[in-house]
Here is the input.
Amino acid sequence: MIEYPPSLEIHPLPQQVLACVHVPGSKSMTNRALVLASMYGSEHGSLLGALQSEDTEVMIDCLRRLGFQVETDWDDVQPGIRVSRPADAGLIPADRADLFVGNSGTSIRFLTAMVSLGRGRYRLDGVPRMRERPMEDLLVALRQLGVHAYSERDNGCPPIIVEANGLEGGQVRIKGNVSSQFLSGLLMVAPLARKSVTIEVEGPLVSEPYVTMTIEMMRRVGLTMETSPGPRMVTVPVRPWRPVSIAIEPDASAASYFFAAAAITGGAIAVGGMETTSLQGDVRFVDVLQKMGCRVERRDGSTLVRGGPLHGIDVDMNDISDTVMTLAAVACFAEGPTTIRNVAHIRHKETDRLTALATELRRIGAGVEEFADGLTITPAPLHGAEIETYNDHRMAMSLALVGLRVPGIVIKNPGCVAKTYPNFFRDLERVREQGCHAAG
Here is the structure.
C-alpha cells in the first residue's frame, strides 16, 4: 500500500525536459477484460499487463464475492490476473451477493449487467458520490430483457437491486447520452442471453470510442456480432471454445498527463507502448496537442510529444472526455482562449468535472467561462494555491501539471489518484529526475 500525505506541493520541472515514461495498464481495458475472462473463458481467463488500482481491485473483490476464483500477480514487469469459474457452477456462481464498488463507474455498470445472467438476488452499492451517479438507463434496458432490476431508493441511482433468473434476450432500446458504459455492459453479456439480443441506441451516444473498444475486445475473444449504422448492434450468442487470454495496453488517459507535461514545459516526453493502433480513443489526445502547436512523433512502440509555442483552440471532446481536464491544464499556458465543447456528461463523473475545473482554475488566476456542456479557458497570470480535488483522481493528476510551471501549487488529498494510477506522483518525479539529469 502506498502512503500519501494529506497534501502535496508540486515543484516546477526544468525547461526543455527530455524523458521517457511507462504508464500502467488501461483501467478501461482491465475491467472489460475481467468481465470477458469471467464469462467466456471455457477453463480460465488470463489478463496480461493488467492495472492494479482501486477501481480494478473493487472489481476483483466483487468477482470473488460472486463466486469466481481470481488470482493476481502484481509483478512490476508483467502484472497479470487469472480468473476461473468453479466446476459445474452457473454463469454467476453465487445466487446472492452484496457488492461494494467504491466510486468505480465501470464496475457498477458492468456488474449490474453481468449479474443479470445469474439466478438470485444481488445488491450493488458504493461511496456517497456513487449514490448520486445515474443508472436508470441501464436498468430500463435490463427490464426490457426480462430482468427485475431497480434502484433501491427509486431515484435511478445506487444502491441497485437485481433479481435475476437469466437474461431472456430479444429487442432492447437504450439511451446513450449519459454514459457509454451502459451499452458496453449490455454488449458484453448479451451473447449469454437465452436468445439473440438486438440493441438500438436512442439519441446521441457519448464517448463512442469506448463502445468501439468493447466490441473489438469481444471479437478478440471469439464473440461475433453484426453492427449497422444508427448505431444498431446485433449480438449473436457464440461462446469461444478456448481459454481467453487478453493483453492490456498501457492506459492512454494516464499517458495524456505526460504528453501534457511536455506541452506545458516545452520539453519532449515519450510514452512507451502507446501506439496509433491502440483500442483506446484517448490516444487521440496527442492530435489535440498537435493542433495547439506541439509536435507529435509516432515511433515503433512509443509516441513522443515535443512542446512548442501553444495557441488556444475550439474543440469537441465528446469522444475523449477523460482528457478534458488534462487539456484544461495545458490551455492555461496557451496564447488565446481554448473552448472545450460537448462534454455535459462529465458532470456525472466522480465529481461535476466542469464546475470543479472552473472553480479550481479560477483559484489559480485563470479566466474561465462555464457553460452547460463545456468551458472556455482564457490564460492569465497564474499563481500558487491549494487545489481541491473533490476526491477525483483526474482533478489531482491534471491540475498537478500546472505546478510544473507555476510555483506553489499544492494538491490536496493526492491519494485519490489510487483510483486509477497509484504511482502517478512517483512517475512524475521520475520525469523530473530524468529532466534534471539531461539538463546537467
